[in-house]
Amino acid sequence: MIRMNINTPRDSRRRARRGDLVTLLALAVLVLASCSARAAGAPRVSYAGPVPEGAVARLGKGRIEGLAFSPDGRTLAVATDVGLALYDAQTLHQQWSQASLVPIQAVAYAPDGQLLATGAADGQVSIVAPSDGQVLDALKAPAAVSSLAWLPASLSPAGQPGALLAAGFANGDAVVVRVGDAGAQPLLSPFGQLPRHPAGVTALAFSLDGAMLASGDISGSVNLWALPELRRAGSLRGHPSFHRVQALAWLSNSEELASADSKGRVLLWRMDKASPEQILAQQGSPVLAIQADPEGSVLSSVGGDGLLATWSTEVAPVSYPLAPPDTEATRATIAADRRIIAIAAADGSLATWRIEGEAGAPEQVATLQGHAGRYTPVEAVAWSPDGKRLATGLGTDVAVWRDLDGRPERVLAGHTQPVTALAWSPDGTQVASGGRDRLIHLWDARSGRLIRQLPGHTGYVADLAWSPDGRQLASAGALDHTVLLWDARSGRVIRTISEEGDDFWSVAFSPDGRTLATGTTSGDILLWDLGGDTAEIPSMRLRGHLAWVTDLAWSPDGQRLASTSADGGALLWDVEAQTRQPVAAHNSVVRSLAFSPDGRQLATAAKDGLVLIWDVAPEPTLRAVRTLVGHASGVNGVAWSPDGQRLASSSDDNSVLIWEVGPASSGRSRIPATSAGRG
Question: DSSP string spanning 301-350?
């Protein structure tokens, strides 16, 4: 037993609400075919990920939702909101990745290491081969999977051979299925069900003797279920109401159970008592993982503050920081032997730590950058004029990619809030970035040096555009009613454009540099004469959209102007005649558009997650000639490479996809979705 001062709270038993899960047991087992997305050649260390058919590269990885070490501690499975990846635990080199259009929220290795289980936001529980990520079998439930736990075949109740897998769901349901040996058909078969919990099931753990299953839920309850009947054997009440049970761990004698909650409380229970025997911690930060050593004499936990705490029968409690101060850890896992720990942080970084000895100080083993942080959608993307480099937002940074090989050439750090707009100077020597911090930064594209900072907007910078001669930079300030024209050399504001009662969301210079088009909240497009006229009224007003104008693009010959809007449509304008034609229709806000370099096609990107390509020459049609499917969330930006061969799209899923769209890859059929990403 772990010896600590005992602090036993009053037992406040509450009966759990029962529900009928017969329908879950009647679910058919689905056999899914999944192709390996293993990249050829050496694994990429960072910023890599699977790509859908039709794409050639993915820049970025998904947000980490779950972590699990293999039983031997050699590999680390990482579940993300775009799929599943496997890393070498010592180097964090990626061994393979498999994509999913639905976030993977839970992952757990089988005790023998021969299989992986994953749980998805759409309720699918999958059995995956650790060798390549191939899905071997799956079942589907009506609610998101929130927890998983394995019982080895050697402890499985008599009857059919195979291990047991317990799955908990966000609606309070929980089921147990039997998992046959690899190669068995079907691999999954029903075993039993638990009465519905009063809230989502957030933690599961089989006792080490196979006699009991413990479950924890959002309400703070811990329940015990006796195998093989899955009969309720007890309820453990000690966590405050609605302090989510984050993790459970049995000690080696199966007579003691540790439970941890979202407020940092770790409780130690004896099975012959209804109240906790000991309170091991009350640190206030969520406990992300707990693990007992094989002998049951040491218990370790990792909190959201990045602190590793260890309790032992032999030595006094100790704690070590595994992350710098003010770092927020979001996910953690501890290997079965407690020798290696993995922590994912809110900024998207992943790190592994090794521990030597029973209470040895942890030593950092490897770090990995490139997974998405908690709030890092990629809002902007822009090709350099020569097409050799691509600039993308990366949270508060700007990433410049050269070879699209999975690693940025340079990361430009300077904004304090996410980057919302990007634009290359016509000569390719500078990159302008705008952010939610209301600032514009001008960067030297070759050295990455910050040339100057341009303060002036009181709302975030929604869009940027360089004049064709590179002398001026236009910026739209969302919610500050202004478009600012800057002298690019001096950084001085040379003109302020405003429209009473309206805000600006998009800007675009005409190819001859004489006209600036601006898109407004009202849905109007205002054209401003830049040929020496500084009149405070626009030279032309184009009306047609029913909601704010999200993006603007001139055709390469300057004869037409394309616009997208929150009304779900795109319009093509003959500016001289002041006439418009509908081009595109999405099912949600259209965020961005781009003309192909020859002006014959138009790409649109929307919050529905799709990128559509439309023929607009000689006349526009309302039929998309290509539908690019692969992002797991809304698409914020789209940019055509100068040679017209590739299209880049940026998304709320924290990734950028590079699509082959040149003549050799053109076609009118829908590209099937085989993978997706956020990162």
Answer: EEETTSEEEEEESSS--EEEE-S-TT--EEEEEE-TTSSEEEEEETTS-E
**Residues 6+ positions from 448 with CB-CB distance below 8 Å:** 400, 410, 411, 412
- pLDDT in the model for residue 633: 84
* DSSP summary character for residue 511: T
CA–CA dist 93, 352 (Å, integer): 12
Instruction: Let me know if 363 is exposed, middle or buried by CB neighbors in 10 A (0-12, 13-18, 19+).
Output: exposed
Sheet holding 560-565, edge to edge: 549-554, 560-565, 569-574, 579-585
Triad 590, 376, 447: Cα angle to 5° = 100
CB of 509 within 8 A of CB of 488?
no
User: Would you say the C-alpha torsion 445, 450, 451, 453 has a positive or negative sign?
Assistant: positive
User: Strands across the sheet with 287-292, in order?
Assistant: 287-292, 298-303, 307-312, 318-321
For β-strands 472-477 and 461-466, DSSP reports them as: antiparallel
The closest alpha carbon to 458, from 474, 475, 438, 434, belongs to 438
pLDDT of residue 39: 26
DSSP secondary structure of 48-77 = -----TTEEEEES-PBEEEEEE-TTSSEEE
Instruction: Check the CA dihedral 173-174-177-179 and report its sign.
Output: positive
- Average pLDDT of each block of 10 consecutive residues along the chain (679 residues)? 29 31 27 24 32 76 91 96 90 87 92 96 95 93 96 84 94 95 80 94 95 96 94 92 93 88 92 82 87 81 91 75 85 93 90 78 86 78 96 88 74 90 97 96 95 95 97 94 95 92 93 96 94 77 94 95 94 92 87 95 94 87 86 92 95 88 49 25
Contact indicator for 604, 568 with CB cutoff of 8 Å = no
The neighbouring-strand residues paired with 88 are: 75
Q: How many CA atoms lie within 13 A of 358 on its CB side?
A: 13
State the CB neighbour count (10 A cutoff) for residue 49: 31
Residue type, 249: A
Place of tokens 């075993």: 191
Task: Tell the burial category of 672 from Cβ atoms under 10 Å away from its Cβ (0-12, 13-18, 19+).
Answer: exposed
Distance CA 256, CA 533 (A): 81
Residue 52, pLDDT score: 77
Pairing of strands 188-193, 201-206: unpaired
Indicate the length of the chain as a whole number: 679
* Residues 340 and 332 sit within 8 Å (Cβ to Cβ): no
Residue 336 phi/psi, 5° resolution?
-60, -35
**Which residue, among 258, 305, 267, has the nearest Cα to 286 in the 3D structure?**
305
Residue with tokens 């309790």: 311
